[in-house]
Amino acid sequence: MKHDPLPAIGDRVATTDRRALRCVTAVTIVSAAAWLLSAPLSAAIVVGLIAGFFVWIAGKPTRESTALIPAPVIDLPPDNSQELMDAVDDVLLIIDRQRITRANIAARKLFGIEKIEGDYRLALRHPVAAELIASERETDRPIEIAGIGDPDRRWAMSVRRLEGRARLVTLRDRTDSWIAERMRVDFVANASHELRTPLSTILGFVETLSDAAAADDPAIRQRFLAIMMGEAKRMQQLVDDLISLSRIEADRFAVPQTRLALSPVIEEVAGVIRAGLRDDADRLALDLSPAPPIQGDRVQIAQMLHNLIGNAIKYARPGTAIQVSLGMQNDRVVLKVADEGEGIPPEHLPRLTERFYRVDPGRSRAVGGTGLGLAIVKHIAERHRATLEIVSRLGVGTVVTVSFPAALDALSS
Q1: Taking the alpha carbons of 245, 250, 252, 256 in that order, is the dihedral positive or negative?
Q2: Do 168 and 134 form a contact (C-beta atoms < 8 A)?
Q3: Which domain covers residue 54, as residue numbers?
Q4: Were both Cys, which of 6, 93, 150, 205 would link to 224 (CB 3.0–4.6 Å)?
């Protein structure tokens, strides 16, 4: 606590009251004494008043005597505005006369320390941002800008006026929202295209069959009907995949609670696929080691296996083996599907699980793919809290690994 050298107000009032009491007492005593000594009453009062005046003058406090009890002064807290700025996740800059006077941690990470210690134009190298700050006006609503820090990042920028000519510049990262919106737009466009192509084919053949000459030729009619059936099934598969993806995404936060052994599910799916392969049924080889159960949805796990094994068969070289293995690794249940195919170029691997993404669109449509298989696999893995890894080597083949956590009580039993 610091102290004010001046006296407290209450102390000065108390001192004045004591002086007045002494003065009145002196007037009374001196006046009474003079009257008892046979002085006239008026003269006794005058003498008493004179004595009281001298007592008042004598009792006046000096500067030293006024500082009896110092008045306390409360310390103000230190300036913690920098700590408050650093606690904000958005990028914050305080700019005063074209210079950055303060920046939070997010701003230092984005621009670098060397660029925020001087002219703001060294950091905000963006024409819209520079023009907005130079105009010294506030923004009614955040302005969308791109290219700060990274060409693909999107920001919502706002400017607020502070004391004097200082400005508070806020940059909120909207990249994730922008990517989600772009994915939504791309999804609608791709889904429309995937449905429109077979629909156009069907309508074209229906129109052709409406011609009497084509309808009377059994060979032409049979060939056109077969093509129409194939396109209709493709549309049906696409719609089924879209519905499955929607349901899986709706349940992505609900972890399955049913204990599920993977070996029986793998054997069941392999049996269905082998029945469809007929002469090439021996291509599909299983290597199932003992593994604890997982917490899983049987229908979704079967769908995952159909997609993974189906992709391996479609893109592997004819006659090569498709290996499906199950085992344990670091207390996790590991499922692998490997093929011997042409492989996937490295630049395509990060995008394989995007909806409708195809490495070779022409070949994918030729083998009957909808472009949603791996997207469904990714969402099923996420719902089961599993990790998905795709490793591919050109000319060698591709290995897809799904690593599941074992059921909660499986490892302890």
Answers
A1: negative
A2: no
A3: 2-73
A4: 205
